[in-house]
Amino acid sequence: MRIVFSIIALFISGQVVSQQSHQWAPDGKGYFSVKDNDIRFYSLSGGKDSIFLSAGELTPTGATSPIKIKSWTLSESQDQVLIYTNAKKVWRYETRGDYYLYNRKTRQLKKTGIGLAPSTQQFAKLSPDGKKLAYVVEYNLFVEDLETGVIVQLTNDGSRKRINGTFDWAYEEEFFCRDGFRWSPDSRKIAFWQINAGVTRDYYMLNATDSIYPQVIPVEYPVAGEKPSTYRIGVVDIANSSIRWMQIPDDPIWGTYLPRMEWAASSDELIMQHLDRKQQVSTILLGNSITGETRPIYIEKDSAWIDILPSWDQDYTNGGWDWIRKGAAFLWASEKDGWRHIYAISRDGKSSQLITRGNFDVMDIAAVDEKGNYLYYIASPHNATQRYLYRSRLDGKGEAERVTPTNQPGTHYYDISPGARYAHHQFSNHYIPPIEEYVALPGHAALNKESAVVEALKTADPSSVPVHFFTVRTMDGVEMDGWMAKPAGFDSTKKYPVIFYVYTEPWGQTVKDEFGAGYNHLYKGNLLQDGYIYISLDNRGTPVPKGRAWRKSVYRKIGLVNIRDQAMAAKEILKWKYMDAERVAVWGWSGGGSATLNLLFQYPQIYKTGIAVAAVANQLTYDNIYQERYMGLPQENRDDFIKGSPLTYAKNLQGNLLYIHGTGDDNVHYNNAEMLINELVKYNRPFQFMSYPNRTHSISEGPGTFEHLSQLYTSFLNTHCPPGSR
To answer: Residues 234, 218: contact at Cβ < 8 Å?
Structure first.
């Protein structure tokens, strides 16, 4: 339930430069980039670039064109290049394809997985010694000897319901677990997840467009209240395929989760994060890979929920464990003092040292520079709409230091090189388009003669865009950040219609000082030229750096606290003399669609028109990992789920509603639409509805889809919330 339109992502590919358009060299003195299917090396110390691997070298024998690079990795020896191509989509991401290996010594290119069906390999990884390649095919784990080409199947029981080396839908969606196996440092063993989804009921989607007879598509999907898929962690010996299963505690009635697992800086131990069903108790386990015995070393509890991700801003796909002090300690994020800080936890769990000090939240770990004794991280102590690079000493001494220059207000992303000598820096704010440059750390000096960011800030005019940021305080004493885009030719003596863009849930922040704030991608034409005011607000519960209490005040109250915050803020805003309180619209997608419905139904005196896309109408239909994390268990507090669901308030609809959903949505299922329709029909409430056959949660598939959706959205808005001043 996570479509929150990252504004900057509308203008560039992803929130940060994609991994494969920029990859650091192991020594951190330069980077690789793919250009015209050549892999080129750019030296930051010498300022030169050269071809590391040419497109010609990537042309298979007998072929007339090179393989197309989707992504690539370099072996530790730098002699071998593993290339991923022919990628196919699995749910959200293209994680299934083919792999080729180029040997820089022999100058030979060969395809791996000979004899396997095309585009079936997943997450292929070279062993640390570069002699073998492991990958998943059809729910089973395989290893290939790169010298002989012999392929050995390490697991044999894989199926859609018993998954080896990768994950079920819920783990992938909510824990960002996709690549489910790890090579041991000595290349002799592989640790992997086995997910047993046999206990998980299927949700049946119906494909009624691709054949005369509709086809049923099952998805293993545990809704709130259903027991999670069970799991095991196995360690398979490459020499004989024997498997040692880790002895991990489980709750036979309620179930538990294991979202993180890595080798514990050695080939004899694993380190794992274990969560109870409610995700309120996090236990770090050390496991002996030889005996299978495990022991808890660090336990943390929270009365609401515990976040497992090291970043709020991007999907985290198996990013590893940050070990320091030669494996004697690791870094860990915790909110136990009311702020999200980073601690150094000793390997035995007996000591915990605070590294980042102050009344602020760490938003993301950027780099660990153990040689220099610094941890680099993202924070914004004074403005929750922005992002900056900071650093603190790894020994916990001293105060936090801001690395980003103070004269560069806005949103900053950093990809820091090994050794923390350089960083790829990306910047934008609401009036400056995205800029990329390389900087030296810690001084932040641009490697070219003039910093492109500095030059842009010198000449940019904040008044050149019709967007400004503001705060509003509600009658409940809640102060919220917002942005507002004013219409062309704005005249404060006239009244204008206002559109609120919402998300409101714990996964999405909409008010960010980045380029594109105030832009509506669905509106056909120019929203501001047509005479609308456009606003977005971040309520309590959204993942902004305002402390634990702000974020977790919505526990068991999603659909109530977040909705009241939005409505009370809108009530204050509508007091402004240029707001037309009779022309007030709200819209959102996914969680924002749910918020739109709740606002329209619970506060019909404020919101007159709403457009909800792919909304959760009934919280009991959404997956257990997400919904139970923030709402508890239906077995214990079912009323909270009902009180927070738009379905409960549908009878109150007074205004104009357009509801949109894709029938092939594997995320927020289409039955939400039909439940809502039933309720609106029951109470004789008029509304407009559009279903998109066989489209997923993004409603992006099929020719003409976006054009149709955009026209539908715009026409409904223009009709029921007419543009222009009065």
So the answer is: no
Q: What percent of the chain has pLDDT over 70?
A: 96
Mean pLDDT of the chain: 94
Determine the Cα–Cα distance for residues 716 and 27; give it in Å rounded to an integer. Answer: 56
For residue 77, count other CB atoms closer than 10 A to its CB. 13
CB within 8 A of 54, min separation 6: which ones?
Answer: 38
How many whole angstroms separate alpha carbon 351 and alpha carbon 97? 44
Q: Is the pLDDT at 724 greater than 90, yes or no?
A: yes
Contact 321, 375 (CB under 8 A): no
**Mean pLDDT across 203-220:** 94
Q: What is the dihedral of CA 675, 676, 682, 688, to 10 degrees?
A: -130
Euclidean distance between CA atoms 236 and 641, whole angstroms: 42
Say yes or no to pLDDT of 265 above 90: no
Question: H or E segment at 456?
Answer: helix 452-459
- Secondary structure element (H or E) that encloses residue 563, with its range: helix 561-573
Helix (H) or strand (E) holding 259, with range, is strand 256-263
Rounded alpha-carbon distances, angstroms, from residue 53 to 37, 40, 78, 628: 9, 7, 12, 48
Structure tokens at 239: 């020499």
Segment 541-548 mean pLDDT: 97
Q: What pLDDT is attached to residue 19?
A: 39
Strands of the sheet with 23-24, listed across from one edge: 23-24, 30-35, 38-43, 49-53
Q: Are 138 and 120 spatial neighbours (Cβ–Cβ below 8 Å)?
A: yes
Give me 662's structure tokens: 């894709």
Cα-Cα-Cα-Cα torsion 57, 62, 66, 71, nearest 10 degrees, comes to -90
